[in-house]
Amino acid sequence: MPVSVTIDEIKAAQARIARHVVRTPLRHAPSLSHNNSPVHLKLETRQTTGSFKLRGATNAVLSLETAPTRGATGVVTASTGNHGRAVAHAAKARGIRAVVCMSHLVPENKVEAVRSLGAEVRIVGHSQDDAQEEVDRLVAEENLAEIPPFDHPAVIAGQGTIGLEIIEDMPEVELVLVPLSGGGLAGGIAAAVKALRPRTKVVGISMARGAAMHASLLAGKPVQVEELPTLADSLGGGIGLANHYSFALCRDFLDEVVLLTEEEVATGIRHAFTAEGEIVEGAAGVGVAALLAGKVKPSGPTAVVVSGRNIDLGLHRRIVEQGVAA
Ligand SMILES: *Cc1c(COP(=O)(O)O)cnc(C)c1O
Predict the structure, then answer these.
(1) Mean residue pLDDT across the chain
(2) Which ligand 1 atom lies nearest to the CA of residue 51?
(3) What is the best residue among 41, 82, 231 to mutate for testing ligand 1's pocket, by most ligand atoms within 8 Å of CB?
(4) Does any ligand 1 atom lie closer than 6 A to the CB of residue 233?
(5) Domain 54-146 carries which CATH code?
(6) Handedness of CA 70, 75, 79, 85 (dihedral sign)
């Protein structure tokens, strides 16, 4: 069956982005390890902009010369979170224009965070759909290339470089745990890992509140789920009913998907800090949380992808001190 993102594309991405992103550490985590199952954390918390999203955004920006985006004068996205930051940073590094479209509902601190990275901000309408309409208009009228957050081959190949690094640093790895939302991260990593080590298991982890990829995999096609507030806010949102790449990769390459309660996500954030000294956002703590909850049981060397650190520090302190966020 044809695969939409190949190991060769992921290797090409690795060479393309090498000078622009941090090759993050894979650090032993004593508090999560057992005799035959050493657990290592792949720390994308140390990535520039605070999340792995810079890998895919950088690969997409550096790939702009190739069709069908040839000649684009800049890039545009509607993401206000980690992907928006990453696109802004990657465009600035390349010296091209970046526009981030957002609705009036986006809080001022997020607007400022994107502006401070050198991107133009367009504030339009009152929903994510309105922001996306402005993206579509800019693509059509101002010759900008859209860089979507997950469903794009260059973005997926960029995220897949994490899988290459895990195999390089830990060739004996038997289990890889990956946070799962739109599936660019998990799809890319699984494509790399399965190409190089077909018997290594790759498990996707989402919060139970609004797990769109999980529902879609069960349905056998992309479906919509209600979006609910969650501590793992970077995992919110749908996968797109017209999904082209990430759904198929997750369907073909993920061995399993595990869902977590909000309390389990909070426990992951707290444990990462108190036992391993890492500040992680909710989305990034889900691998640790799944191990602590016993929802994944390693039987060999294990790598846990810790995807980002962009959490409000007041919220982080409340979780560490009180357990579940009040
Ligand atoms: C975007 C993001 C994810 C999920 O990545 P997908 O490619 O959408 O599955 C996980 N963790 C963090 C910190 C993110 O920013």
Answers:
(1) 94
(2) 13
(3) 82
(4) no
(5) 3.40.50.1100
(6) positive
Strand arrangement of the beta sheet that strand 120-123 belongs to: 120-123, 97-102, 74-77, 144-146
Work out which ligand 1 atom sits closest to the CA atom of 44: 13
207 lines ligand 1 (CB under 6 A): no
Closest C-alpha to ligand 1, atom 13: 308
Query: What residue has token string 């009180």?
Result: 322
| Closest of 324, 321, 207 to residue 274, by C-alpha | 321
Binding site membership of 182 for ligand 1 (Cβ less than 6 Å): yes
Query: Residue 1: what pLDDT?
Result: 45
On the question of a common fold for 7-51+152-322 and 54-146, the answer reads yes
The confidence score (pLDDT) of residue 176 equals 99
| pLDDT tens per residue, range 92-135 | 999 999 999 998 888 888 888 899 999 999 999 988 889 999 99
pLDDT at 72 over 50: yes
Tokens of 320: 């560490």
| Ligand 1 atom closest to the CA of 188, numbered from 1 | 7
Domain borders along the chain are: 7-51+152-322, 54-146
Residue 67 pLDDT > 70 = no
> Angle 184-196/7-17 helices, nearest 10 degrees?
110
Q: Is residue 326's pLDDT more than 50? A: no
Residues 6+ away with beta carbon under 8 Å from 300: 36, 37, 172, 173, 174, 175
Ligand 1 contact, 183 CB (< 6 A): yes
Cα of 137 vs centre of ligand 1, distance in Å, is: 26
Mutate to test the pocket of ligand 1, among 234, 244, 253 (most ligand atoms within 8 A of CB): 234
Choose which CATH entry (3.40.920.10, 3.40.50.1100, 1.10.760.10, 3.40.50.720) describes domain 7-51+152-322.
3.40.50.1100
Residue with CA nearest ligand 1 atom 7: 184
Helix (H, G, I), strand (E, B) or coil at 172: coil
